[in-house]
Amino acid sequence: MNLSSYIEVDLKQFKKNLLIIKENLKDSLFCLPVKANAYGHGLVEIAKVAQDEKVVDYLACATLEEGKMLRDANIKIPILMLGSFFEDQIEDLIKNDLEVTISSFLKAKIIKDFCDKNNKKCKVHLKIDTGMKRIGVRPQTAEKLLEFLNNEDCFIIKGIFSHFACAENKDHPFNQIQLNEFSSFIKQVNPPKDVLCHLANSAGVLYFENGYFDMVRPGALAYGCYTANMPEKFEGIKSIFSLKSRVSFFKVVNENEGISYSHTYVTKNKTRILTIPIGYGDGYFRSLSNKAKVLINGRKYPIVGTICMDQLMVDIQNDSVFVDDEVVLIGKQKDQEISLLDIAELLHTVTYEILCSFNKRLARIYKN
Ligand SMILES: *Cc1c(COP(=O)(O)O)cnc(C)c1O
Question: Are 330 and 295 in contact (CB under 8 A)?
Answer without folding.
Answer: no
